[in-house]
Amino acid sequence: MRASLIQINVDPAEPVAERRDRAAALVREQAGSDLVVLPELWHVGAFAFESFAVEAEPLDGPTARVMSSAALDAGVWLHAGSIVERGAGGDLFNTSLVFSPGGELVRTYRKIHRFGFDKGEAVLMAAGTEPVTVALPGAVAGLATCYDLRFPELFRALVDAGAQMFVVPAGWPERRRAHWSLLARARAVENQAYVLACGTAGTHAGVEQAGHSVVVDPWGDVVGEAGAGEEVLAVDLDLARVARVRDEFPALKDRVLGVPGIPVINGL
Asked: What is the Cα–Cα distance from 246 to 252, expressed in whole angstroms?
């Protein structure tokens, strides 16, 4: 599988509509890849809290329409990062969108762990409740978003649902970049799965972004890593490596504690 992670620059001076069109153009440039990934809340900025309600949209809103068209034109599976979704009841969610090469919205994931403690996303957005997987060609992918990376029990639930790789869009700050790299490798090692972690570049709402999108293999080795600026990180994944690592070092078989009581939506 060839995967392309688009580490797009989020500049508050760039209108959202223009960045949406620019992101779509970048997706179309990845024709030939199997999977393309965009970061968390790239259209508005993960820390631009005052814009969340203004830029919120339904699942069939402008971002979904533009990304659907881009996936269809490029002929790729597209994890379009996440949007500020306005739910039917008016609540806001941090929601990831996954499109098929035919442009169909096949899966959504509402971020379970909201960042901010008693402010920001944690109070402005409602929490998702269900781990989500999606069946891609050759692998089942578990979906997580940014702050989720700090909660290993979610990833265990995704492994129990058959995940062999994790796709993690993020808007991770530069001041905690060391955690970003460490946690991506930890989730890969402990679950013997690929981690595709795609962040944003630039500075918005006064928060410098970490960039450094990274792909880690099931043994914990870094397959590829971006720099700090806008960049497309393209890597080739050996999906058979997941089974080999799990067979040669079958640590998952020695698990004693499970994750009871967490519902899981299986992939298509």
From this structure: 7
Q: How many residues are listed for the chain in this entry?
A: 268
144 is a domain residue: yes
Q: By residue range, what is the domain housing residue 162?
A: 2-254
Single out the catalytic residue among 55, 85, 111, 225. Answer: 111
For 161-206, the pLDDT digits (tens) are: 999 999 999 999 999 999 999 999 999 999 999 999 999 999 999 9
pLDDT, mean of residues 84-112? 97
pTM: 0.94
Catalytic residue among 40, 121, 225, 231: 40
256's tokens:
């004693």
pLDDT of residue 268: 40
Would residue 111 show up in a list of annotated catalytic residues for this protein?
yes
> Is residue 75 situated within a structural domain?
yes
146 is catalytic: yes
Residue 176 tokens, joined: 């905690």
CATH of the domain at 215: 3.60.110.10
262, part of any domain? no
Contact 201/213 with Cβ under 8 angstroms?
Answer: no
